[in-house]
Q: What sequence folds into this?
C-alpha cells in the first residue's frame, strides 16, 4: 500500500498464494479458538482432550454421527447462502429466521388439500412454495433499501420478528391441528409427500438440493454476467448505474434469492424432518447462517464444508451434555470463540495482503 | 383486596403498566447503543451484554442478597464484554457488524453455561415504588407500581442528553463519531473514546439485562430475553441518535408490546401472537415513513459504518 513503484529483482523461492495464506489464517484461528475453549472447559474441571474427543465422536465419529451432522448441514448451507448472496452486493442481512419459518409454514400448508397425488409434483410444490414465500418476504428488504433507503440489516431483523410472530399466530391459531396438544403444529403432511432419503446413506435429499444450489451459486457468481453485475452493484451503485445496470433490480433480486434459500431451508426441514410446521423451526438458524457465511467468507463452495463443521459441532452438543454433564450451551461458546477468532484472523490476513502490495 | 370491575377502562391501565415494564430494558439498551453509535461504532451484539448482565445480576443478587449490588455486577459484566468488543473492533479492518454478532453468540453461550445452576434458586428482586397508594382501584395501583430501574432510566436519558450537548467529553464523543479526521486534527484520542463509548454502552445493556432477571419477569432462564438487545440498533435509528428520543421510542415500543398481554389479561386471547408483532410493525412503519430515498439518515453520525 502506498508504494507506487516496486522493482523485484529476485524471485522469492516459495511465497504462499492468497488461498494458501487464507487457509493458513483460518486454521490458526480455529486452533486459537480451540485453545481458548480448552481453557473454558478446564475451568469446568473437565479434561479438554476428552471434550474434543467427544465433539469428534458426536459429530464425525460414526456413520450415525455423520447422518445427524449432514442432516443438520443441509439447512445450514441454505441459510449460509441466504447471508452470502446479498453479501456479494455488500449487504449484511441477519433476519433469515423469519423467511425460514414462513417458508416452512408455506411448505407445510400447500400440500394439505391434495390427497393421493403422485409424490414428485407434490414435493416440488412444497419446496417451490417455501422458496417463493421466502423470496417474497425478503424482497421487501431489498425494496425498502432501494425505495426508502432503509438499512437492510435493520429491516430484515424487524421483518424476522414480524414473520415469527405471524408464524406463531398461524400455527397456534387458524392453522393448528387440534390433535397437536403439547406442541402446537399444523396438520401433518401426507407421509407419501415427505422428501425421500438419499439411497445408501440415511440422510434426506435436502442435502443434495442444498449442495447443488451452493455449486450453482458458485458457478453463477464466478462465471456469468449475473455474478459480475452483482459484484459491481456491491462495489459501487454509482458505477453500476453508469454502466447501465439497474441497481434496484439487482438489489431486490439478490435479497429475494436469499429469501428463497432461507424459505427453501424451512420447507426442507418441514417436508424431510418435522412433517409439520411447529416451533422446532425456530432454532437459531438466522444466527447459524451468519456464522456459516462469515466463516466461509461468503464463498459459496466453502459454505459446504463449513456447514458440515458447524452441523457436526451442534450435533455433538447433546453428547457433551450426556457424557460430561456440561451445559448444552458449551457448544455455543465454542461457536462464538471460533467466530471471533476467524473474524480477527480475517482482518489480520487482509492487512498482511495489503502489506504485500496485492 | 377486592377486584373492582372497571370494565374496559382497565385496558389502557394495563397497557400503561405493561409499557413501563416492557420498555425499561429497552431504555437502557437503546441509550447504551446511542452512546456507542455516537462515537462512530456500532455494537450489534448488545444482546450478548444484556443476557450476560441478566445472568451476572441474578447471580450476585442471589449470593449477596442485595439486588442493587446485582445491578452493579450486571453493568460491570456488560462493560467488560463491551471492552472486549471495543478492543476487537480497534483492530484495523475488522468488521464491527460481524464482531457484534459473534460476541452475541459468545455472550449468550457464556451466560447460558455459567447460569445453568441459577435456574432453580430465587434471588431477591428489585424494589418497586407504589405511586398509586392513594387509589383504591387495584388496576390503577398495579399500573402505577413502578419499578425503580424505570425511574433510573428516565434520569439517565436526561443525563445522557446533557452529557452529549453540554459537556466537553460529550462534544469529543460526537466529534469522534462524526469525523475521525477532525477528531484527530483536534488531538482527540479516537480509539480510546470509542472503546470507552462501547464500554459505557455495554454497561447500560448489562443493567437492562438485570431488569429482566431481577424485576420483570424476575427470574433467570435461557428464554429470558426475546431479542431486547438486538432491537437496540433499530430503536436508535428510530430515535435518530438522540437520547431523549430513545426514551420515547422505548416507551412507544414498550406500549405497543404491552397491548397483547393486556388484551390477554382481559380475556381476549385470539390474537395474542399477532399483537407480539405490533412493536416491530410500528417501528418498521415509522422508519419507512420517516426516511426517504433522497435524504437517508441525515442525523446519523458520520463515521457510522451501517449507513454507507
A:
Amino acid at each position: 500500500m502506498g508504494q507506487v513503484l516496486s522493482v523485484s529483482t529476485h524471485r522469492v523461492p516459495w511465497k504462499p498464494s492468497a488461498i494458501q495464506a487464507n487457509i493458513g489464517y483460518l486454521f490458526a484461528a480455529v486452533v486459537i479458538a480451540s485453545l481458548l475453549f480448552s481453557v473454558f472447559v478446564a475451568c469446568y474441571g473437565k479434561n479438554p482432550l476428552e471434550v474434543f474427543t467427544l465433539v469428534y465422536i458426536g459429530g464425525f465419529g460414526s456413520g450415525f454421527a455423520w447422518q445427524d451432522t449432514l442432516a443438520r448441514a443441509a439447512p445450514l448451507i441454505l441459510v449460509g447462502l441466504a447471508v452470502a448472496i446479498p453479501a456479494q452486493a455488500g449487504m449484511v442481512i441477519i433476519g433469515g429466521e423469519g423467511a425460514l419459518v414462513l417458508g416452512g409454514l408455506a411448505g407445510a400448508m400447500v400440500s394439505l388439500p391434495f390427497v393421493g397425488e403422485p409424490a414428485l409434483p407434490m414435493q416440488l410444490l412444497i419446496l417451490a412454495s417455501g422458496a417463493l414465500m421466502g423470496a417474497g418476504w425478503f424482497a421487501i428488504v431489498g425494496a425498502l433499501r432501494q425505495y426508502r433507503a432503509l438499512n437492510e440489516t435493520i429491516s430484515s431483523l424487524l421483518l424476522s420478528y414480524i414473520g415469527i410472530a405471524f408464524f406463531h399466530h398461524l400455527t397456534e391459531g387458524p392453522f393448528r391441528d387440534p390433535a397437536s396438544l403439547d406442541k402446537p403444529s399444523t396438520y401433518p403432511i401426507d407421509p407419501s409427500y415427505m422428501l425421500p432419503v438419499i439411497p445408501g446413506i440415511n440422510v434426506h435429499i435436502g442435502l443434495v438440493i442444498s449442495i447443488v444450489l451452493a455449486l450453482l451459486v458458485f458457478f453463477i457468481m464466478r462465471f456469468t454476467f449475473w455474478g459480475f453485475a452483482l459484484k459491481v452493484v456491491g462495489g459501487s451503485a454509482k458505477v453500476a448505474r453508469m454502466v447501465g445496470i439497474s441497481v434496484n433490480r439487482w438489489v431486490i433480486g439478490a435479497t429475494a434469492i436469499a429469501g428463497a434459500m432461507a424459505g427453501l431451508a424451512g420447507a426442507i426441514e418441514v417436508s424431510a424432518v418435522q412433517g409439520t410446521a411447529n416451533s422446532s423451526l425456530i432454532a437459531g438458524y438466522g444466527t447459524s447462517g451468519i456464522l456459516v457465511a462469515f466463516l466461509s467468507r461468503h464463498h459459496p463452495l466453502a459454505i459446504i464444508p463449513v456447514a458440515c463443521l458447524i452441523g457436526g459441532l451442534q450435533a455433538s452438543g447433546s453428547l457433551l451434555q450426556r457424557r460430561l454433564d456440561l451445559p448444552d450451551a458449551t457448544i455455543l461458546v465454542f461457536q462464538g470463540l471460533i467466530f471471533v477468532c476467524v473474524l480477527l484472523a480475517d482482518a489480520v490476513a487482509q492487512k498482511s495482503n495489503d502489506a504485500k502490495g496485492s | 383486596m377486592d377486584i373492582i370491575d372497571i370494565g374496559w377502562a382497565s385496558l389502557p391501565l394495563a397497557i400503561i403498566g405493561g409499557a413501563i415494564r416492557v420498555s425499561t430494558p429497552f431504555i437502557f439498551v437503546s441509550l447504551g447503543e446511542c452512546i456507542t453509535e455516537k462515537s462512530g461504532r456500532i455494537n450489534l451484539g448488545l444482546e450478548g451484554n444484556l443476557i450476560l448482565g441478566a445472568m451476572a445480576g441474578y447471580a450476585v443478587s442471589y449470593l449477596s442478597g442485595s439486588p442493587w449490588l446485582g445491578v452493579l455486577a450486571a453493568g460491570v459484566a456488560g462493560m467488560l464484554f463491551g471492552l472486549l468488543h471495543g478492543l476487537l473492533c480497534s483492530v484495523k479492518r475488522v468488521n464491527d457488524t460481524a464482531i457484534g454478532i459473534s460476541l452475541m453468540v459468545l455472550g449468550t453461550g457464556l451466560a447460558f453455561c455459567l447460569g445453568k445452576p441459577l435456574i432453580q434458586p430465587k434471588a431477591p428482586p428489585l424494589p418497586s415504588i407504589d405511586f398509586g397508594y392513594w387509589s383504591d382501584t387495584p388496576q390503577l395501583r398495579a399500573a402505577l407500581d413502578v419499578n425503580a430501574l424505570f425511574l433510573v432510566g428516565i434520569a439517565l436519558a436526561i443525563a445522557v442528553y446533557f452529557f452529549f450537548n453540554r459537556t466537553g467529553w460529550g462534544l469529543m464523543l460526537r466529534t469522534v463519531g462524526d469525523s475521525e479526521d477532525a477528531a484527530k486534527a483536534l488531538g482527540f484520542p479516537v480509539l480510546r473514546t470509542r472503546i470507552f463509548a462501547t464500554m459505557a454502552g455495554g454497561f447500560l445493556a448489562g443493567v437492562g439485562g438485570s431488569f429482566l432477571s431481577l424485576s420483570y419477569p424476575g427470574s433467570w432462564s435461557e428464554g429470558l430475553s426475546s431479542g431486547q438487545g438486538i432491537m437496540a440498533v433499530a430503536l436508535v435509528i428510530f430515535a435518530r441518535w438522540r437520547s431523549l428520543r430513545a426514551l420515547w421510542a422505548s416507551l412507544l415500543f414498550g406500549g405497543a408490546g404491552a397491548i397483547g398481554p393486556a388484551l390477554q389479561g382481559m380475556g381476549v386471547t385470539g390474537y395474542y401472537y399477532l399483537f407480539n408483532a405490533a412493536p416491530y410493525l410500528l417501528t418498521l412503519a415509522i422508519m419507512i415513513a420517516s426516511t426517504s430515498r433522497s435524504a437517508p439518515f441525515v442525523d446519523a453520525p458520520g463515521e457510522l459504518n451501517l449507513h454507507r
Remarks:
- Residues 17-46+326-358 of chain A form one domain.
- Chain A touches chain B through 47 residues (CB under 8 Å).
- Chain A has a mean pLDDT of 90.
